[in-house]
Amino acid sequence: MWIPREIEKVLLEFAGKRPAVVLTGCRQAGKTSLLTRIFPDHGYVSLDLPVVAEEAEFSGQSFLARHPPPIIVDEVQYAPALLRYLKVDIDQHREDFGRYLITGSQKFPLMEGVTESLAGRASIINLHSLSAREFEAWSGATLERDDLVRWMFQGGYPELHRRDLDPERFYGDYVATYLERDVRSVLNVRSLRDFDRFMRLCAVRTGQLVSYHSLATDLGLSPNTVKSWLSVLEASNIVVLLEPYFENLGKRIIKTPKLFFLDTGLCCFLLGARNEGDLAASPHLGSIFETHVLGQLIRHFANRGRRPNIYFYRDHQGREVDFLIPSAGRFSLIECKWSETPAGRQRGFAELESLVGPDRILSKTVVSSLRGHRRLPNGVNVSDSIALEFLTREERPLSD
Predict the structure, then answer these.
(1) Closest CA to 158 of 44, 273, 32
(2) Contact 11, 34 (CB under 8 A)
(3) Is CATH 3.20.20.150 the right assignment for the domain spanning 8-126?
(4) Burial readout 276-296 (b: 16 or more C-beta within 10 A, e: otherwise)
(5) pLDDT digit string (tens) for 105-163?
(6) In this predicted structure, what is the pLDDT of residue 398?
(7) For residue 14, what are the contacts with CB-CB under 8 A and spacing of at least 6?
(8) Contact (Cβ atoms closer than 8 angstroms) between residue 39 and residue 17
(9) pLDDT digits over 306-344, tens only?
(10) How big is the CA angle at 35 (ends 300 and 130), to the nearest 5 degrees?
């Protein structure tokens, strides 16, 4: 059964306005299925097969003669030279919109090729695994507190839910395939077992400040190697490095990014959780919930074709705000609390408000594990992580 995606409207809109659309995202996010479903009249060719990728890379003109547009070109990172031929064809047909729909699973090499060859000709969209809101709309379920633990444990990969697969087996296969196909092709890794250990150590650190030295020490590697490996996880849309917000906020703040996994199911597997009970009893539950909230925020913006403009704040005294969303010089502040009764008074909120002034604070929201949206007397919103009502309510006054 097909799982509708919120991003479908954006894809249709962009394909109606630009000659090319580039859809990036991690493996198994559903890029190919999405494009072939909503653009059934387009041809399709996958560069996953080495012989096809070789022709596209070294004989781009004949490749396009054999696969004329409009066409979906899948996994274009395996033949980046093809983008130059697409540019020539697009320039000859500038008013022919939606001519090329391109997918790629590795951001860095793909974006480099797009920047060089398709600048001004392509819209770039990032597809993630399912949001909890998409899952609810498809399944008809309502993710209450206990269900949310199960959701975070399972994660949002569409195939896992559509075919009701065992998460442990699914993620075991996923990691093995990722290591063999993506990591081996990008890095000269001495041992894929070392990289597997690296991924598991990163999972333990989701929601924490990045320490290259600590990771390097635990792995017996150099910090530069760790940086290189982390860049591959980021390029593959496995993790995101969340930057701190420090513009005009003084010199007392932390300037080290935080590491987050983009899908909690993969993170839980790497942590060694084998069922939702393991997660519920885990000391990592709080950081997994924070990881989940960030993932829902990122998906909320990405599914609307917008770049997620999300930061965190932390000073050297440990005062922090989990997430900060700037907007025209004003800020939305977000704290994540698994507690059923989160306190409205948050130290980080008070600190930032004193630094920038109350007039520059758009909203203060505590995201909790309970469903619903309410406003506390001190002006703090308490919202759930799925509906994300506070993101849309900020544009109009809240009714008391």
Answers:
(1) 32
(2) yes
(3) no
(4) bebbeebebbebbbbbbbbbb
(5) 876 666 677 767 788 889 999 999 999 999 999 999 999 999 999 999 999 999 999 99
(6) 39
(7) 21, 123, 125, 305
(8) no
(9) 988 999 998 878 789 999 999 988 999 999 999 877 766
(10) 35
The structure tokens listed for 194 are: 């070392």
Q: Can you give the residue ranges of every domain in the chain?
A: 8-126
